[in-house]
Amino acid sequence: LVRGNQEPDLAGRHIVISAGGTREPLDPVRFLGNRSSGKQGYALARTALARGARVTLVAANVGLADPAGADVVPVGTAVELREAVVKAAADADCVVMAAAVADFRPVAYAGGKIKKTDAEPDPIALVKNPDVLAEISRERPRPGQVVVGFAAETDDVLAHGRAKLARKGCDLLVVNEVGETRTFGADGNEAVVLGADGTETPVPFGPKEDLADAVWDRVVPLLPPRAA
Ligand code: CTP
Ligand code: CA
Predict the structure, then answer these.
(1) Cβ–ligand 1 contact at 176 (below 6 Å)
(2) What global pTM score does this model have?
(3) Nearest to 148 by CA among 177, 176, 131, 169
(4) What are the residue boundaries of the DNA/pantothenate metabolism flavoprotein C-terminal domain, all occurrences included (predicted)?
(5) How far, in Å, CA of 135 to CA of 124, rounded?
(6) ipTM summary value
(7) Residue whose CA is closest, atom 17 of ligand 1?
């Protein structure tokens, strides 16, 4: 499903989108993961392609059909996702971090399956993962590139969103409210697009393609001039 604006206003642009959720392995059969379906990131990819962009889609554990024409890079963990995004961002006009990146990973990986014994289990020690959005926002591998983050919050959505936008240093932050049943895995989404320039663009509940097109509408005016 591709809807709305299909003007080729992203023609000649390279856009990098991360989608899905990372999985941090504990042993060969177990991981720490999250409920991200990848649907919003894939909707961003399809709509960007419809608007003429070249799209690199860094896909973490997504069970969705590849959007026709996208360059899909499958990844598993946050560290792999960072590597793929940093590589693709080198010549990107815009980077959109729609993926749910695990904040932490287990310190140790057990090469063999962890076995149950009569003793109580040990706690799982964790270490921080790299923050890809903060890194890309700080480094801007290509001058003038536009960086977009996503945030799902459970309360004080706008206040948390504003603080997160400032902390990450991105240009736009798409914030939505989530709960047990809201948003994760659903086909629709409702959000507010916060701009580093202080703007707030509410996007009413609708298909994820509509939110994606609303994001591109905000990205287009921020893009650097096309190379002559
Ligand atoms: N993100 C990232 N790398 C991480 C964690 C998050 O690039 N290690 C990106 C996500 O892709 C998203 C944005 O940062 O675009 C916000 O993610 P979120 O989890 O809401 O932010 P955190 O800084 O991890 O804060 P929180 O404590 O709320 O999880
Ligand atoms: Ca997080």
Answers:
(1) no
(2) 0.95
(3) 169
(4) 10-220
(5) 27
(6) 0.99
(7) 151
